[in-house]
């Protein structure tokens, strides 16, 4: 895992004090396969994520999903061996749309990422990536039945990087650009676009770090 000084949040981050987010953040390790300007191809290792489903538009779902998962990582959980500990947060926070149908001691886990949001049947699936030190056996179990832990396999992604605000129109523009670029590379998408955000809401727009990511079939 790489270290970065960026602090991650979505709109709901204002629920947490700035002091609690002053630590370094951990990002999922990946291998850079190729880079062309703002476009990259990356290979990510497998990850553990906590996820929940929420309703609303993109912004409302971001806030609600963040609140539910932040509640889990900051102590609403059951530790395997009891006691509590503080764990470094990770980055980025991600959002993913998808139109397919288909009483013990608690442990405090610092805010983590990526968080992915996936839309299905009018709801969004919001995910936090867990710190790399955890396994399925050692990760605290959520007390909230609306939070579940899943294992995400290793994946390859096409990525476009951009700064400033990540509003719906900007994200749509960048998503289209990434899809066109990947098509030119003869890459076959296997997932819906994900929006990755790396900064807290008080970060100046021109300093913000955002990405749109699309999983694709690795040859």
UniProtKB/TrEMBL annotation:
The keyword Nucleus does not apply. Pfam families: SOUL (PF04832). Residues 85-99 have a biased composition (Polar residues). Gene3D superfamilies: Regulatory factor, effector binding domain (3.20.80.10). It comes from Psychrobacter fozii. The keyword Ubl conjugation does not apply. This is SOUL heme-binding protein. It comes from the Bacteria. Residues 1-22 form the signal peptide. Keywords: Signal. Residues 85-105 are annotated as: Disordered.
């Amino acid at each position: 895992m790489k270290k970065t000084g960026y602090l991650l949040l979505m709109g709901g981050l204002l629920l947490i004090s700035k002091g609690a987010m002053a630590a370094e953040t951990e990002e999922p390790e990946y291998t850079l396969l190729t880079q062309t300007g703002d476009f990259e191809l990356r290979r990510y290792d497998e990850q553990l994520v906590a996820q929940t489903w929420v309703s609303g538009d993109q912004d409302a779902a971001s806030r609600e999903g963040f609140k539910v998962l932040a509640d889990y990582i900051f102590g609403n959980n059951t530790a395997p061996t009891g006691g509590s500990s503080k764990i470094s947060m990770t980055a980025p926070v991600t959002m993913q749309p998808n139109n397919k149908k288909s009483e013990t001691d608690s442990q405090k886990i610092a805010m983590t990422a990526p968080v992915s949001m996936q839309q299905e049947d009018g709801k969004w699936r919001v995910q936090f990536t867990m710190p790399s030190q955890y396994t399925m056996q050692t990760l605290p179990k959520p007390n909230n039945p609306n939070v579940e832990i899943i294992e995400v396999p290793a994946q390859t992604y096409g990525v476009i990087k951009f700064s400033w605000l990540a509003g719906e129109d900007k994200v749509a523009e960048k998503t289209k650009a990434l899809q066109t670029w990947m098509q030119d590379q003869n890459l076959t998408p296997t997932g819906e676009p994900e929006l990755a955000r790396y900064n807290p809401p008080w970060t100046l727009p021109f300093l913000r770090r955002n990405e749109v990511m699309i999983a694709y079939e690795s040859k």
